[in-house]
Write a structure and sequence with these properties.
heterodimer, A: mainly alpha, MetI-like fold, 2 domains, 12 helices, 0% strand, globular, B: alpha/beta, Rossmann fold, six-stranded mixed β-sheet, three-stranded antiparallel β-sheet, 9 helices, 9 strands, 24% strand, binds adenosine-5'-triphosphate, binds magnesium ion
Chain lengths: 263, 251
């Protein structure tokens, strides 16, 4: 019975994926035909086949890997450092109510600030290489990480904390046995959001200074009016972001499975 | 005496000024007895339990407790990501008392109280009554001298409530724990307890204390207690205390 159900479920899933792929192909086809019959100006919109040809060229010379690897490195560094530091700071704020009250207005101001506008300054501070770009990425995601994680932490049911205290749990035990595990899913969703934010930071950083990376390709393509190059950069970007999202999804599944079925 | 309250008073500082909640409360709990704490809503029963458990410092008077205190709340507060077994040993884990004897004790309780088969399940797979039993075993696992139960059955439907209170009563008596149980339900108070303490409206004082002695042909449990002819008499006394002397609020 159970097997039968899962078979049906898998069939449904396959059907969904097939429809999604057909939708994509339909859209690309429309774009290609539109460009060929002159409905879309190729100069402004390029077309899928030219993007594919260009991609093949970059692939053959291995040049694409240089750009992908540098952007990936920057993004992954930005996500891990930014998320870890953000969660750590949220933990400190949770542990010290006085500190969190003190810093609250500053966090709100920092959050409201358009971080991309400050990117040039950050690059001056940290250098024009990978370091500067990673800093831009971190600056974009860290404040949101702190604020949302902190809010998750303090929104635990007060009675659960009383329950822990009635066993004479100390602050560290309350954190490790109650606050953190009950927010594991929330923290993972914060990290998922951070993927997108880190990419924004990396692309902005690369627009400003770099000599390599997906952001650089897009920027360069725009400057020389090579729309196929721009489109290729955008497609690669979205694929990379999607893959990273799926990897975090996988990590989430493994973590949840490890601690039992859980929430 | 397991517990003694001497002139315990409590004031909260709120935006609207001082809120006097407890006014010189005096009572004590004897070894192995179940005492029900009854009073109007907002009179300060939970506050009293929090003070007894040491989670709040009273602004006046003193609490003398012998030994550890176990506290069970209205909600079971089970941790959803832990299995039943892992939930039950939470207190032992926190107090670093996971000794072979204590683990043996926990396993015995799980078996005795019909939860052994569910030890590897998660709380979401259990019924409300079972969850409440798990919460009780978690509280008992650390071996407290005194149990505090704050409206432990309030979230259950009537039928389940009767069955679970029967269960919990038997467990408490079997483990010989002195207990304070807070409840709004007068029948529940009479059927479960050896003594009832009635608190007045806020600021709460002790209005009356009744010894509950029921004449019964069979062994006393919450269900059989309801059949005793004395049951009604106590009920009327309590009802009068809560409604006639405090007409504006009732319960
Ligand atoms: N930390 C607090 N700060 C300020 N006021 C509080 C605090 N805790 C409780 N109170 C107030 O003290 C009064 C008594 O609360 P308490 O929860 O002890 O009542 P209770 O008898 O348990 O009520 P109920 O029967 O509704 O559970 C209420 O008016 C409540 O608003
Ligand atoms: Mg209460």
């Amino acid at each position: 019975m159970k097997k039968c159900l899962s078979k049906e479920y898998r069939f449904e899933k396959l059907k969904l994926i097939l429809s999604q792929i057909s939708l994509l192909i339909f859209f690309l086809g429309l774009w290609e035909i539109g460009a060929r019959i002159g409905l879309l100006d190729e100069f402004f919109f390029s077309k899928p086949s030219s993007v594919a040809v260009l991609f093949w060229k970059y692939l053959r010379t291995y040049e694409i890997f240089k750009h992908i690897s540098i952007s990936l490195l920057e993004t992954i560094l930005g996500i891990t450092i930014g998320s870890a530091a953000g969660i750590l700071i949220a933990t400190i704020l949770w542990a010290s109510e006085r500190l969190s009250k003190l810093l609250e207005p500053f966090l709100i101001i920092l959050n409201a600030l358009p971080k991309t506008a400050l990117a040039p300054i950050m690059i001056i501070w940290a250098g024009t290489g990978v370091r500067g770009i990673v800093l831009v990425a971190i600056s974009i995601l860290i404040i949101v990480t702190i604020i949302s994680t902190y809010n998750y932490f303090i929104n635990i049911e007060p009675e659960k904390i009383l329950m822990m205290k009635s066993f004479r749990a100390n602050k560290f035990q309350i954190y490790t046995k109650l606050i953190f595990p009950s927010n594991l899913v929330n923290i993972i969703s914060v990290v998922k959001i951070n993927i997108g934010l880190a990419w924004v930071g990396v692309i902005v950083g690369e627009f400003l200074v770099s000599r390599a990376g997906i952001g650089y390709l897009i920027m360069y393509g725009g400057q020389v009016f090579r729309l196929d190059l721009v489109m290729m950069g955008v497609v690669i970007l979205s694929l990379l972001a999607y893959i990273m999202y799926e990897i975090v999804n996988l990590i989430e599944k493994i973590l949840l499975k490890k601690r039992g079925k859980g929430i | 005496m397991v517990l003694e309250l001497k002139d315990v008073s409590m004031k909260f500082c709120t935006k609207e000024g001082n809120l006097e909640v407890l006014d010189k409360i005096n009572f004590s709990i004897r070894e192995g007895e179940i005492v029900a704490l009854v009073g109007p809503s907002g009179s300060g029963k939970t506050t009293a339990l929090n003070i007894i458990a040491g989670l709040l410092k009273p602004t006046g008077g003193e609490v003398k407790a012998r030994g550890d205190i176990g506290y069970m709340f209205q909600r079971d507060n089970l941790l959803e990501w832990r299995t039943i077994y892992k939930n039950v040993i939470l207190g032992l884990e926190i107090q670093k008392k996971l000794t072979p004897e204590n683990i043996e004790k926990v396993k015995r309780m799980l078996k005795t109280y019909g939860l052994w088969e569910f030890r590897n399940c998660h709380p979401s797979e259990l019924s409300g009554g079972m969850r409440q039993r798990v919460a009780l075993i978690r509280t008992l696992a650390t071996g407290p001298e005194l149990l505090l139960l704050d409206e432990p059955f309030a979230s259950l439907d009537y039928q389940t409530k009767l069955l679970v209170s029967e269960d919990i009563y038997k467990i408490i008596k079997k483990e010989k724990k002195s207990t304070i149980i807070v409840t709004h339900d007068l029948s529940e108070a009479i059927s479960m307890s050896d003594r009832i303490i009635i608190l007045t409206d806020r600021p709460a004082r002790v209005m009356n204390i009744y010894e509950i002695e029921l004449t019964l042909d069979e062994e006393r449990t919450p269900l059989t207690a309801r059949k005793s002819p004395d049951f009604r008499i106590y009920f009327e006394k309590l009802w009068r205390d809560l409604n006639e002397k405090m007409p504006k609020q009732g319960i």
